[in-house]
Design brief:
The protein has 212 residues and is mostly beta strands. Helix content is 2%, strand content 33%.
Length: 212
């Protein structure tokens, strides 16, 4: 299932979630060009190619050759969610999940079992209460994230750390750029809530590495 596009009052993305909370309902929107957050020009249309030397590594696999992720589980914070496929909207911004209780997979990036990163995005809350990634901030190194792919197999990752970035300084290349490793990133909003903009001012990025 692909996400839809709606008003700017919903949680918005421009590679990062621009407004992960503060609105009720399940409609979602994509950040318009010039809105707060990562510049829309930074949104990649597809995964960034791996460095030429990295192609010699047997660990580097083209994401298009492996099954897509379909669900995610994070036992430490009680998350169990199907994944909605997220692409890029006509205005160049990234799409967001329509349902605040569902996480989404950025299909222009990696997939489990291939070069990364696999990027999952989700809302932190709405006026109705906590959303799917509300407790993402509580993850600690070593916590396990399980991603089920379309063939039924489960890829397990261990959290290595988390970072918080102001939305106007979001490191798009560092978060979404291709890696030679099978890396997972979980992205949501955090920081203070800007009531005028009806969004949080920062993004939280949790990184996890593939377990054997």
């Amino acid at each position: 299932m692909r996400s839809g596009r709606g008003g700017l009052l919903a949680c918005c993305l421009a590679l990062a979630l621009s407004g992960c909370g503060g609105t009720a309902g399940t409609a979602s929107g994509s950040a318009a060009a010039g809105s707060e957050g990562v510049p829309t020009s930074a949104v990649p249309s597809s995964v960034v190619p791996a460095p030429p030397g990295a192609l010699l590594s047997p660990a580097v696999v083209d994401p298009a050759t492996v099954p897509a992720p379909v669900s995610v589980a994070v036992p430490a914070i009680g998350v169990q969610s199907d994944l909605t496929e997220l692409g890029i909207a006509a205005d160049g911004s990234a799409e967001v999940p329509e349902d605040f209780d569902l996480a989404g997979w950025f299909s222009g990036g990696g997939r489990p079992g291939s070069r990364g990163p696999t990027v999952l995005l989700g809302h932190v809350d709405s006026t109705a209460g906590p959303a799917v990634f509300y407790d993402l901030r509580d993850l600690a190194p070593g916590d396990v994230v399980e991603v089920t792919v379309a063939d039924g197999s489960i890829a397990r990752y261990a959290v290595t750390g988390s970072e918080q970035f102001p939305k106007d300084q979001f490191p798009t290349a560092a978060v979404f750029g291709a890696t030679t490793e099978d890396v997972l990133r979980l992205v949501t909003c955090t920081g203070e809530f800007d009531r005028g903009a009806r969004s949080y001012i920062d993004n939280l990025v949790v990184t996890a590495e593939r377990l054997p």
